[in-house]
From TrEMBL:
Species whose genome carries this gene: Niallia taxi
Endpoints of the signal sequence: 1-29
Name this polypeptide is given: Sporulation integral membrane protein YlbJ
Keywords: Membrane, Signal, Transmembrane, Transmembrane helix
InterPro entries in the record: Gate_dom (IPR011642), Spore_IM_YlbJ (IPR014226)
Transmembrane segments: 48-71, 83-101, 121-142, 149-169, 212-233, 253-272, 292-314, 326-344, 384-403
NCBIfam families reported in the protein's UniProt record: spore_ylbJ
UniProt key word Membrane: yes
Chain ranges of the Nucleoside transporter/FeoB GTPase Gate domain: 43-134
Length: 408
């Protein structure tokens, strides 16, 4: 009872403080909202929507079930999750946050995952996508696309390590039901599961596509709200000197490892929002590139409270606990920073020295113009794509209105 009252006071106090800050700095809040909205409709929406729609269609057609049977002998021994987790893991890495959480919740609703398996899977199936790490962080922020291959490599290696660690989560609990042991993937059984799953989903193709579009856009609208909210919170905390206050404690920790104290504010910003934290880290001129890379790896691994709030909102619709996911993000931030430190000497010797070594990357990677041009074209087309998809979403909702059906 006492803890509940304390929690109520903390939540009410925090909300009141943010409301006061919003009224005190209205212009700052509006500018931050615009930045968050711009990020959502130029990058996030067009990047995630195709993957989310495709994932829903693949689940409906039984393709995910098909892949689950084939991947069972790999995913079960490594991560103690069913084979369908391999699909979620791959989609989570390719499309980025929070696709892994969305698909995990979807498969939990389909009863293809137990609660324990879903909590294990969601802890390592969410990651930054390669385009963001290499294109945005490395090429756009650091102006060094080669650095992106180190950041991406350590990020996904840390993600894999987290998956291995989380296989022991809940190992003391007894399984709710027995599963058939599968040693060799059976293509025949996989085809049978694919066929049965498709027959079980009795929705016609038009209904399936409509459901996929509406479900995906509803999720992206929620994600956009969180991006805007945390963009405002981050900017307000900076103007209220709260970020500087928190950075004071981080400075002492960084001093132990001879890191520049100027990295403390970008690190705190990255705790709240991954993009802003990475951008500020790249702009610290008093730090070495190695220290900047380590801090950026930590920010990418933790993924920011903005992304975590998105995941928490998705998981709240199921019985999946958020705590394992949060703990896993701390683990990934730790592992990613350690791996970046361990691989830095080998990476810098081969790829960052002036004299091109034997194992240097191809010349086209040294030229950042193609990445910058691709990112610019993508951002130019992003708003138009978002508006078109939202228009289709409104039309689909209008067609499905109950009163319209009764009138017809």
């Amino acid at each position: 009872m006492y803890r509940s009252r304390v929690k109520t006071i903390i939540l009410a106090g925090t909300a009141s403080f943010l409301a006061f800050a919003l009224v005190t700095f209205p212009a700052t809040a509006v500018e931050a909202s615009k930045d968050g909205l711009n990020t959502w409709w130029t990058i996030v929406f067009p990047s995630l929507l195709p993957f989310l729609i495709l994932s829903e269609v693949l689940i409906g057609f039984g393709v995910v079930r098909f892949l689950g049977v084939l991947l069972e002998p790999i995913m079960r021994p490594l991560f103690k999750v069913p084979g369908v987790g391999g699909f979620v893991w791959a989609m989570g890495m390719v499309s980025g946050f929070p696709t892994g959480a969305k698909l995990t919740a979807r498969l939990r609703e389909e009863k293809q995952l137990t609660k324990l398996e879903a909590e294990r899977l969601v802890s390592f199936s969410n990651a930054s996508n390669p385009m963001f790490i290499i294109g945005a962080v490395s090429a756009a922020f650091f102006h060094n696309p080669k650095l992106g291959f180190l950041l991406a490599g350590t990020h996904y290696l840390a993600n894999f390590t987290v998956g291995l660690c989380m296989r022991f989560y809940g190992s003391d609990e007894k399984p709710t039901h027995k599963r058939k042991e599968t040693s060799i993937p059976s293509l025949k059984r996989a085809m049978r599961e694919l066929h049965h799953t498709r027959l079980k989903d009795k929705r016609p193709l038009g209904k399936l596509l409509g459901d996929a579009v509406t479900s995906s856009i509803q999720s992206l609208l929620m994600i956009g709200g969180f991006i805007i909210l945390f963009s405002v919170i981050n900017r307000l905390l900076f103007h209220l000197q709260v970020t500087s206050l928190l950075a004071g404690g981080v400075e002492k920790f960084f001093d132990l490892f001879s890191f520049s104290s100027a990295l403390s504010i970008p690190f705190i910003a990255g705790i709240f929002e991954i993009t802003l934290g990475s951008k500020l880290t790249s702009g610290v001129e008093t730090s070495t590139l190695m220290h900047q890379a380590i801090v950026t790896s930590m920010i990418l691994g933790f993924c920011g409270l903005s992304v975590q709030a998105q995941v928490a909102s998705i998981l709240a619709q199921t019985d999946i606990s958020f705590k394992p996911f949060f703990f896993a993000r701390i683990l990934q931030a730790f592992f990613a920073s350690i791996y970046t430190y361990l691989f830095w000497d080998a990476f810098s010797t081969r790829f960052l020295e002036d004299d091109k070594p034997a194992f240097a990357m191809p010349d086209f990677i040294n030229d950042t113009s193609w990445l910058a041009a691709a990112a610019e074209k993508w951002m130019e087309a992003g708003p138009a794509f978002t508006i078109i998809c939202l228009s289709i979403y409104v039309v689909v909702l209008f067609i499905r209105l109950p009163w319209r059906k009764r009138t017809i």
